[in-house]
């Protein structure tokens, strides 16, 4: 770990992990064996980054995010080793773009998020998926390229549809927590407050 990196209280780093300069990790994070955290990456509290995951700068991860084993968050939209004239590219010869992972979101094992892209709050990216476009909050995406196949709640379980679409949109429920959600006409999912729920 570089001396210029900052680790929050209770954060643990396993063998062979590399945490670069100016990376900031919150409280109670777990960084697995052989993981890589790039320069200046910002990581919230209670984040788990599993063995051999690669998180390249300028990625940001919200509180409670999960990055599975050998997952990759890229940072170069058009990677080349050399410039058009054949000279080797150096740090200043390209513009880094990042992946943004929202609060509570999960990236499955060996998934790849191709920057620039954002993974919404509490979303779930299936193992081996390749994310090439933004993932909405609470979305469950799988495949190459990743496509939404459903919705998940904060529990990680797939939501159960309770009401077909009407003027207020479709209604969904988390089978574990009982929390309810409404799907908007724009294809987004929002949590319902108790006041919004129908008796």
Report the C-alpha radius of gyration, rounded: 19 Å
Give the uncertain stretches in residue-range form: none
Q: Quote the distance from N terminus to C terminus.
A: 54 Å
Shape summary? globular
Task: Give the averaged pLDDT, no decimals.
Answer: 92
Structure in a nutshell:
The protein is mainly β and 199 residues long. It has strands spanning 6-7, 12-13, 18-19, 24-25, 30-31, 36-37, 42-43, 48-49, 54-55, 60-61, 66-67, 72-73, 99-101, 106-107, 112-113, 117-119, 124-125, 130-131, 139-142, 147-151, 160-163, 170-173, 180-183, 189-191.
Overview of this structure, please?
This protein is mostly beta strands. The chain has 2 domains: 1-152, UDP N-Acetylglucosamine Acyltransferase, domain 1; 153-199, no CATH class. Helices cover 0% and strands 31% of the residues. It contains no helices and 24 strands. The protein has strands at 6-7, 12-13, 18-19, 24-25, 30-31, 36-37, 42-43, 48-49, 54-55, 60-61, 66-67, 72-73, 99-101, 106-107, 112-113, 117-119, 124-125, 130-131, 139-142, 147-151, 160-163, 170-173, 180-183, 189-191. Strands 2-5-8-11-14-17-19-20 form an 8-stranded mixed β-sheet, with no helix packed on it. The protein has a 6-stranded parallel β-sheet with strand order 1-4-7-10-13-16, with no helix packed on it. A 6-stranded parallel β-sheet has the order 3-6-9-12-15-18, with no helix packed on it. Strand 23 and strand 24 (189-191) form a beta hairpin. It is globular and about 60 Å long. The termini are far apart. 39% of the residues are buried.
């Amino acid at each position: 770990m570089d001396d210029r990196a900052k680790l929050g209280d209770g954060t643990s780093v396993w063998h062979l992990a590399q945490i670069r300069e100016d990376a900031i990790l919150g409280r109670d994070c777990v960084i697995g064996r052989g993981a890589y955290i790039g320069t200046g990456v910002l990581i919230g509290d209670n984040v788990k980054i599993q063995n051999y995951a690669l998180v390249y700068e300028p990625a940001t991860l919200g509180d409670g995010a999960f990055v599975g084993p050998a997952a990759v968050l890229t940072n170069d939209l058009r990677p080349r080793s050399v410039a058009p004239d054949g000279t080797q590219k150096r740090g200043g010869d390209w513009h880094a773009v990042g992946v943004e992972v929202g609060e509570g979101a999960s990236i499955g094992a060996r998934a790849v998020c191709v920057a620039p892209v954002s993974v919404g709050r509490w979303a779930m990216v299936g193992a081996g998926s390749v994310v090439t476009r933004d993932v909405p909050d609470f979305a469950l995406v799988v495949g190459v390229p990743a496509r939404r196949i459903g919705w998940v709640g904060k529990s990680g379980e797939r939501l159960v549809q309770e009401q077909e679409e009407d003027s207020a949109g479709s209604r969904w429920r988390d089978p574990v927590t009982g929390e309810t959600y409404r799907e908007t006409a724009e294809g987004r999912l929002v949590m319902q407050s108790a006041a919004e729920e129908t008796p």
